[in-house]
Write a structure and sequence with these properties.
- Residues 247-288 are annotated as: Disordered.
- Residues 10-199 form the MHYT domain.
- Keywords: Membrane, Transmembrane, Transmembrane helix.
- This protein is 63% helix and 6% strand.
- The chain contains nine helices and six strands.
- The strands form three sheets. A two-stranded antiparallel sheet has the order 1-2. Strands 3-4 form a two-stranded antiparallel sheet.
- Helix 2 (44-67) packs parallel to helix 4.
- The termini are far apart.
Length: 288
Amino acid sequence: MQGTIDGFSYGLVTPLVAYLMACLGGALGLRCTTRSMLVSHSWRPGWLALGSAAIGSGIWTMHFVAMMGFTVAETPIHYDKPMTFASLAVAIVMVGIGIFIVGYRGASGTALFTGGTITGLGIASMHYLGMAGMQLNGRLEYNTFTVSASVVIAMVAATAALWAAGQVRGFLWSVGASLVMGLAVSGMHYTGMAALSVHLHGTEAPSSGDSPASLLAPMLVGPLAFLLLAGAVVLFDPKMVMGKPTGAPVEHKPGVPAHATVPHPTRRPPLRPRQAKGHRGSRAPQNH
């Protein structure tokens, strides 16, 4: 028996909130990645790790906020917590690998392609691992072509986002990139959901149970709190709004005073003609 799927049981509320969560995670992650390129090597791993966790938490939160609106009319839905949190770990780790590659190798060429591919596969893996954590009286089946399309969307979105992170520009640039990234991640999610069909195990009457929102809301508290904390770190960092270094890194000029390399010899050359006068002045004794 085919299950009756409704992915928008709360109307446009869940898609819009999910999109905002993806944008928030993307904005924080991109700014942290950009920030890592403006600091010394000792601080770079910390900023890249924060960016990885922000993007991973953002897309994971986006996925499960959207899943609050997903229902199957004939059966209640439950979620396996270990599998659900495993999908969060996969997202953070794989996104982190891609971000660290771009953070240390640069957002161009092979490094960008490799980092974008790994990050995109991480986003897709998070999505389908999270779907595998759903428990219901039925079997999930996917259309292979639509699943492939969702994976391609994830890879293209991740590559574009990492390229944008490598462009050390202003705050508005990253905001625009995060909006595009949020749209792409949401598009990947709903493309993957369009590939889904549910085949029920029996023909039982519809049963009641906890709503997806009541089941998922407690799981979202931790990632949401982390995103708020990461947002506070980014907000109060002095260089984040500017998007560029305020001065040369200290490590490039150890022990050298700032004024030692700023001589102005533009008016020193006139000293040479005085030496020439000295030679002409040697004729003076012959005139006496």
